[in-house]
Design brief:
The structure holds two protein chains of two kinds. By secondary structure, chain A is an alpha/beta fold. Chain A folds into two domains: 7-193 and 254-458, Alkaline Phosphatase, subunit A (3-Layer(aba) Sandwich), CATH 3.40.720; 194-250, no CATH class. Chain A is 33% helix and 13% strand. Chain A has helices at residues 7-15, 107-114, 134-145, 180-188, 197-217, 227-250, 253-258, 282-300, 332-338, 348-375, 436-440, 448-458, and strands at 38-44, 70-71, 76-77, 92-96, 121-123, 126-128, 153-156, 167-169, 172-173, 306-311, 315-316, 330-331, 379-380, 383-384, 389-395, 410-414, 423-426. In chain A, the strands form six sheets. In chain A, strands 7-10-1-15-16-4-17 form a seven-stranded mixed β-sheet, sandwiched between helices. In chain A, strands 2-3 form a two-stranded antiparallel sheet. Chain A has a two-stranded antiparallel sheet with strand order 5-6. In chain A, strand 13 (379-380) and strand 14 (383-384) form a beta hairpin. In chain A, helix 4 (180-188) runs parallel beside helix 8 and helix 9 packs across helix 10 (348-375). Chain A is globular, with a radius of gyration of 23 Å. By secondary structure, chain B is mostly helical. Among the domains of chain B are: 83-206, no CATH class; 297-514, no CATH class. Chain B is 46% helix and 6% strand. Chain B is built from 25 helices and eleven strands. In chain B, the strands form five sheets. In chain B, strands 1-2-11 form a three-stranded antiparallel β-sheet. Chain B has a two-stranded antiparallel sheet with strand order 3-4. In chain B, a hairpin with an 8-residue loop joins strand 1 (212-213) and strand 2 (222-225). In chain B, helix 4 packs antiparallel against helix 8 (187-200) and helix 6 crosses helix 7. Chain B is elongated and about 90 Å long. The two termini of chain B are 50 Å apart. The chains are: A alpha/beta, B mainly alpha. Chains A and B meet through helix 1, helix 2, strand 9, helix 4 and helix 5 of A and helix 4, helix 7, helix 8 and helix 9 of B.
Chain lengths: 480, 578
């Protein structure tokens, strides 16, 4: 079932939203059960630290499931990956037992299908999406209801990208920004510039003249173009018009009073983007936190309703002996697969690996904590931002070592449309122990299809199903 | 070397996904892909098109293909400047040699909103930096000739410069109208800068807008590209940059309708360092050399790996490619050359005398090494952090040297890499080959791996850094001791025009060097690179066949391949878009 518009319709919608201040005041004060207005996606490559295995031969690989909270469903005790999130526990909902039934495994298929809940579509030897991803569907719908200058803000850390999770429509991947300095310039440059109103007006008139002039250039073309080419140029013109409409919003003094640009002091340490993969530490220490701050402040400033971060397998210098390479970086993908050859779980090698994987995944979960920290004190006319924001933290696999696309690490945070948080729900049957035998009992009929349907419903949309038909059952997850 | 006509191979049933005459180019010129998967994405899987050349005859020279009917030129989709082309274009045309604008990669045909925002920001920045005085872009001094007259000259000059062709009246009218809207209080310089900003965001600058004329002698719908379209095609194809003054002058004089003049200009561009860089970039993409420094290797098992060694590997492969392309080595030199440009660490890896000081050429052991596929860069890249990867090596050769279609793996595939040698049922060590065979033994795997593994196994004498090893060695964690197992490097080239057993990398390279499929595959991939689009199955088939024939006739001379691409109908004509 496809609810997405055609490519052309979308291009018009994404670029052509009409904006008007005061959009920050355009919503009523929130009630506890009101649906969220904003969506944040933290999507990471490579799974997490669980022992869930899809092949019996790997089940004995290691015994650890450090992602799954212990304790009881209503009083979960967070594991070592989520220590930074402990202060937000009452805002979190952990879900165990959600599988990716659209694609059972393999990096590229899993990546492409994770947020679309649709089987990947082969294009030559590669894959693309068969439909829009949840985040972009939400971007379209939320921005249509509550206009914002940017339909979504989509960032990505550099690293090993096996596949893009976000798609505007079938085969239309989101184009992400990796350099936070560029993202900052695009989003915040005009806010709080400190320039006098008259000067701002003059600059705005300049920009408008330029964009009007460029738009007029489309009518002056001599080349004879076919229909497909004309559509390409029309989409381009739509984007220019969208940029023009933002001019009045982005340097409006009211916006500057409502928010401040994020602190980008750390950006000075980034150096040339071309050198990032060879400069260990950039991603982990500087770049990703800047991404998170930009995402959070973009919501605080009302610049968008949807923010997404694709955090790939990064190149990081975090491996101690006996894993450390002489080369300046070791990718986290290779680290994950070291889990296939740990030997004795109690041995030094296995313990060292566990500590490293924990540190890596804890860092990623810490980004979500940083985001929640940033958002928690913020308010707008509708009340505390976190009360009207839903956060999804997801990876395409559960077990990084063996590419298991079941029992995925699903964490929701923020406002779940009145749904009670501070819980850990297990939706699967069996397989709750840590031994080979108990893993064989694992069964789940719940898929990302159902998770994404639930999220749409939490936002107040009436979708009965999201994604394709490759799921055991339709409808939302039983989250009540 | 025993070779088998492809048609016969098909009859014998050994080509489950046999190649057709349809080109399946693997390298996309327009984009510099960040990784191998991006390059592979440009592979257009061969359809079941009727092949005009179902297989090479082994012993008879094929006649030259007949001339192509002009009805077969394709519609060419509108393309934007790639980020590299944008950079080169503003560097050359705005006189800003250090300009390096921040642009979105944006590979889709339709520009993204982010891409438009980046173009806007880049235009603003470049317009602020450019010199619009008479010493720079302006052809006149407004203080001397007056702002109106100078403004008019500036607009005409700017349009011709940035839009890379003489401006039409419509374009001049548009720029006149824009100029009139720019506030007077900005002054001449301010208005000039704003006009530059407008021009840099206009489609005439950002897109390859080709023009031409229909002709009663041409089939309906076919247009002959005009001189400036040809100049732009030639310059962006061979330099990834706009036409220089000489090429523009040839276009202004209408000389490019003469194929001989196109040939002369192509020779001139190729002789320029930028032409050399552009051609070499094709091979860098083809071999994925940019990915070598980022390869991850285990320090436990491969302590020799270092950034310096990676750089030396890349430099050595590039040197071999340069010899093959520019010094007459040709395809045979690329696939069979035994000399290597080595520094001391790389010399140690190859087991040859280390040079003192700067890297130097050394002959390698010809029983161990032959050509680019037996060199450290390729072998290191197509290997895991600890062990060689027969699967990746075999898949690369199948895709990039034989242009054989490679469907994606089935959904049920277990894509967990094989990370090391392992233990057999008896607890003893087994070879990586045996592990690969076990992993891919299932019927859902064999559909492809039966055609991949036998190629990759022939390179099993080279470890994860490309070192030649007589026996496979590893470390048996279970026993806590090193182990060795014999290497079986026997294999074959399924679906190719070579039938027979191959044992080892040298024999593999020799078989590939004799293969007409390999020669044709290079021609197909060059076509895609040169035209910045994959060949179409129907309309381009004749042009591609001519390109293949030219490359074969030259004996695998890469520069002959480049020259031949400028003589194709697909270069000078296009179908009008519906």
């Amino acid at each position: 079932m496809s609810r997405g518009p055609s490519r052309r319709q979308f291009l018009r919608t994404a670029g052509g939203l009409c904006l008007a201040l005061p959009f920050l005041r355009s919503v009523a004060r929130a009630e506890p059960a009101d649906p969220p207005l904003r969506f944040a996606l933290f999507w990471e490559t490579g799974g997490t630290l669980t022992n869930r295995a899809s092949e019996q031969q790997f089940a004995a690989m290691h015994p650890w499931n450090d992602w799954r909270p212990t304790g009881t469903p209503d009083a979960p005790v967070l594991g070592p990956l989520h220590t930074d999130l402990a202060r937000h526990l009452d805002r979190l909902l952990f879900l165990s037992g959600v599988d990716n039934h659209a694609e059972p495994g393999e990096h590229r298929r899993a990546d492409v299908s994770s947020m679309t809940a649709r089987a990947a579509v082969a294009v030559g030897p590669d894959f693309t999406a068969g439909g829009p991803s949840l985040d972009q569907v939400l971007a379209r719908r939320l921005t249509a209801r509550w206009p914002a200058p940017f339909s979504s803000v989509d960032l990505a850390a550099p690293g090993l990208h096996f596949g893009e999770p976000s798609y505007r429509d079938a085969a239309e991947p989101v184009v992400r920004e990796a350099d936070p300095r560029s993202a900052f310039a695009r989003l915040f440059t005009n806010i709080d510039s400190g320039l006098p109103v008259e000067e701002l007006a003059r600059l705005r008139a300049q920009r408008k003249s330029v964009l009007d002039g460029a738009l007029a250039g489309f009518a002056a073309l001599d080349a004879r173009l076919g229909e497909a080419d004309r559509l390409v140029l029309e989409a381009h013109q739509d984007h220019l018009r969208a940029i023009e409409r933002r001019l009045a919003v982005l340097d409006d003094p009211e916006l500057a009073r409502a928010c401040a640009p994020p602190d980008m002091a750390g950006g000075a340490r980034l150096g040339d983007a071309a050198s990032w993969t060879l400069l260990p530490g950039d991603v982990r220490q500087t770049l990703a936190p800047l991404h998170v701050d930009i995402m959070a402040q973009a919501l605080v400033c009302g610049l968008t309703r949807v923010v997404t971060l694709h955090y790939p397998d990064t190149l990081e210098p975090f491996l101690p002996q006996p894993f450390q390479a002489l080369s300046p970086q070791v990718d986290a993908h290779a680290l994950g697969h070291v889990g296939l050859e740990l030997g004795d779980p109690a041995g030094e090698r296995a313990q060292a690996w566990r500590a490293e994987i924990q540190a890596n995944r804890r860092f990623k979960a810490g980004l979500v904590a940083r985001f929640l920290d940033h958002l928690a004190p913020a308010e707008d006319a509708a009340g505390p931002l976190l009360d009207r924001t839903l956060v999804l933290h997801l990876a395409e696999f559960s077990n990084a070592a063996v590419h298991t696309a079941r029992d995925l690490p699903v964490m929701l945070a923020g406002n779940l449309g009145g749904l009670r948080t501070g819980r850990h729900l297990t939706l699967s049957e069996g397989g709750r122990g840590d031994t080979v035998e108990t893993h064989a009992d694992y069964r789940s009929d719940w898929s990302l299809h159902n998770l994404h349907t639930s999220i749409l419903q939490l936002f107040g949309f009436e979708d009965e199903h999201f994604g394709d038909e490759r799921c055991p059952r339709q409808g939302p997850l039983p989250l009540g | 070397m025993p070779r088998l006509p492809l048609a016969l191979a098909l009859l014998l049933g050994c080509a489950p996904d046999a190649p057709s005459g349809t080109p399946a180019p693997a390298v996309d010129a327009a984009i510099s892909p960040p990784d191998a998967e991006a390059v592979d994405a440009a592979v257009a899987p061969a359809e079941d098109a009727e092949s005009p050349d179902a297989g090479p005859a082994p012993d008879a020279a094929r006649p030259a293909p007949p001339p192509c009917p002009l009805t077969t030129v394709p519609v060419v989709p509108l393309r934007r400047l790639t980020p590299t082309q944008y950079r080169h274009t503003v560097q050359d045309l705005l006189g800003l040699p250090d300009a390096d604008p921040d642009l979105a990669p944006d590979p889709a045909p339709a520009l993204s909103l982010l891409g438009a925002e980046k173009f806007a920001a880049a235009a603003r920045r470049l317009a602020a930096e450019v010199d619009v005085s008479p010493a720079g872009l302006s052809p006149c001094d407004p203080l001397e000739v007056g702002e109106d007259a100078c403004g008019q000259a500036f607009r005409h000059d700017l349009a011709e410069r940035l839009f890379r062709r003489p401006p039409s009246l419509a374009v001049l009218d548009w720029l006149d109208a824009v100029w009139a809207t720019l506030p007077d209080d900005e002054g001449f310089e301010g208005r000039a800068r704003l006009l530059v900003e407008v021009a840099l965001q206009s489609p005439a600058f950002l897109y390859h807008l080709e023009q031409g004329e229909a002709d009663a002698r041409l089939p309906a719908g076919v247009i002959r590209l005009d001189d400036h379209s040809l100049a732009n095609r030639l310059a962006y194809a061979l330099w990834d940059a706009p036409p220089d003054a000489t090429l523009r002058a040839a276009a202004d004089a209408g000389r490019l309708q003469d194929p001989a003049e196109i040939g002369r200009q192509a020779e001139r561009l190729l002789a320029d360092p930028r032409g050399r860089t552009r051609v070499l970039a094709f091979f860098r993409q083809w071999l994925e050399l940019e990915r070598v420094p980022a390869a991850t290797k285990s320090a436990e098992l491969l302590p020799d790996w270092s950034p310096a060694l990676a750089a030396a590997m890349v430099a050595e492969s590039e040197a071999l490619i340069e010899r093959a392309v520019f010094e007459g080595g040709g395809l045979a030199g690329l696939l069979l050359g035994t000399d290597a440009l080595v520094d001391a660490p790389l010399a140690a890896l190859y087991g040859v005398d280390a040079p003192v000081g700067a890297p130097a050429w050394r002959p390698l052991d010809a029983t161990q090494r032959a050509g680019i596929l037996t060199r450290a860069a390729f072998l290191t890249l197509k290997a895991g952090p600890a062990v060689k990867s027969p699967i990746h090596r075999g898949a690369f050769i199948r895709r990039r040297l034989l242009c054989l279609p490679m469907p994606p793996p089935p959904a049920s595939v277990l894509d967990v890499p094989i990370t090391r040698g392992g233990q057999g049922d008896d607890g003893g060590p087994v070879s990586l080959r045996e592990l690969v065979e076990r992993r891919t033994a299932g019927p859902e795997c064999q559909g492809c791996h039966a055609a991949i593994n036998p190629i990759g196994f022939t390179l099993d004498h080279y470890d994860a850094l490309g070192r030649f090893e007589v026996e496979e060695s590893g470390y048996d964690r279970q026993r806590g001791a090193p182990y060795t197992v014999p290497i079986d490097a026997r294999g074959r080239l399924p679906d190719a025009d070579f039938l027979g057993a191959i044992d080892g990398g040298v024999a593999l390279s020799q078989a590939l060097a004799e293969s007409e499929m390999v020669s044709d595959c290079f021609a197909d991939q060059w076509f895609a690179y040169f035209f910045a689009r994959p060949a179409t199955a129907d309309e381009d088939a004749c042009s591609v066949e001519h390109l293949r024939a030219a490359f074969r006739a030259s004996g695998g001379d890469f520069l002959a391949l480049v020259r031949a691409s400028t003589t194709l109908d697909a270069f000078r004509y296009r179908q009008e878009a519906p």
